[in-house]
Amino acid sequence: MRRSRLISPLLLAAVCALGSMALGGCAYNADLGRDQLLIVNDDSLARDGEKAWADTLRTAYISKEPRKNDRVRAVGQRVIEAAGLSNKPWDYAVFLDEAPNAFVLPGGHVGVTVGLLSMVQNDDQLAAVIGHEAGHVVAHHAAERASQQTTAKVLLGIAGAATGGSDFGKLLKDHGDDAAKYGVLLPFSRKQELEADRLGVDFMRRAGYRPREAVKLWQNMQAMDQAKGGAGADGDLGSTHPSDAVRIQALERYLASMGW
Q1: Which residue in 50, 65, 81, 133 is the catalytic one?
Q2: Alpha-carbon distance 46 to 117, whole Å?
Q3: 78/57: higher pLDDT
Q4: Phi, psi at residue 39, to the nearest 5°?
């Protein structure tokens, strides 16, 4: 824990420095209201997304039930248009998986499981889920994460070479990967999740859905997690997602600030 705190500020400072040198890697995202390190572009991720989508369709079980597919397509397309992502055709699929889940892949693909469709109580809550996933796309979170991972590896190599046989050099060698993981990458993932929640609420409201249903969705998720005995503590050092309680509190604050 102490080692992570020691190295994290150094990595963060170096990331900003490297980002400013590499391809003008620091860019301002108006939707997020902050700068991002983007040395990996969305086009390369879209190619990966196309392959992942093709592989998933080939290997997973897909629902052929028209009502489910029509529902996801109708709600999804409204949210996608509200998010400003309708400049290309989007594909939608319902997967025969009882775990409640959804994803949006770079390149224009939306996947929803039958488990999620069973859990959501209305189309507003389905829009909240798809809006959250669209939020990741608008926020360029996938590109940002890939850029962070690439930069962290480069920085650790540079720092290790520069420090040589010093105590700090040995610290980097022994714990550098953990420092990048816990000091930079995982905490930022929690921040990205909350950003996607906020953007998702914006998109679902713009699409004509009730934004307060996003809170009810996470309350349902929380009740389901608690029933399964998984509290999902927010303080977990290795957690990549904020707890349900933190998400609910953050959404409540944002909705109140917007008067929704």
Answers
A1: 133
A2: 26
A3: 78
A4: -105, -5
Contacts with 88 (C-beta within 8 Å, 6 or more apart), sequence order: 108
CA nearest to 36, candidates 157, 138, 153, 172: 138
H-state helical runs in the chain: 2-21, 42-59, 66-82, 114-119, 123-138, 141-163, 167-180, 186-206, 213-227, 244-258
Start-to-end C-alpha separation, the chain: 40
Q: What are phi and psi of 258, to 5 degrees?
A: -95, -5
> Which residues lie across from 34 on neighbouring strands?
29
Residues 34-59: tens digit of each pLDDT: 877 666 666 777 777 788 888 888 88
Domain boundaries defined on the chain = 2-258
For 167, residues 6+ apart whose C-beta sits below 8 A from its C-beta are none
Q: How far apart are the C-alpha atoms of 115 and 96, rounded to whole Å?
A: 8
CB 25 within 8 A of CB 18: yes
The half-sphere exposure of 195 on its side-chain side, counting CA atoms within 13 A, is 21
The residue behind tokens 């993932």 is: 189
- How confident is the model over 106-149, as pLDDT tens digits? 788 999 999 999 999 999 999 999 999 899 888 887 778 777 67
65 is catalytic: no
